[in-house]
Amino acid sequence: MSDDTPDSLIPYDEIVQEALRAVVGRVLGSVERQGGTLPGSHHFYITFKTHAPGVIIPSSLRERFPDEMTIVLQNKFWDLTVDEDGFSVGLSFNQIPSKLAIPFAAITAFVDPAVDFGLQFQAAAADLEPARHDDGENDTSDTAERGKRAAVGVEDDGSNVVTVDFGRKK
What is the pTM of this model? Predict the structure, then answer.
């Protein structure tokens, strides 16, 4: 395409983002139907905007992660419930059980390091750069920690990460 390409009247970028977030919903829904048990060595890192509409997390987590937070679904999670708009899950943070509700629209990244798969999404406010933050510290096993380190390099090695970033003319 050239620089003379007109602005689209069809919001392709939004349509693609919504379709890719549906992948996350389908995967989590499958886990829910299997009784909340992850198959094989699969585990997930899910990054989301903590102040996005519909996000429900303990205030202590929102204070600690004012922009984004990453949670790990591997060994110690419970009550996974998925609907068409998002999911809720129980996780432990510093041995304190917590219930989180996360709309799919709030998710900015989904990674399954067991199979080198990842998706990244545009933030709702495309002009805002996310602040640097520590990863969520929900209780994880050593395997999860190794997976976390592997997930950090997922994009750099030509893996199956899908990043969608449509430039818009202003």
Answer: 0.71
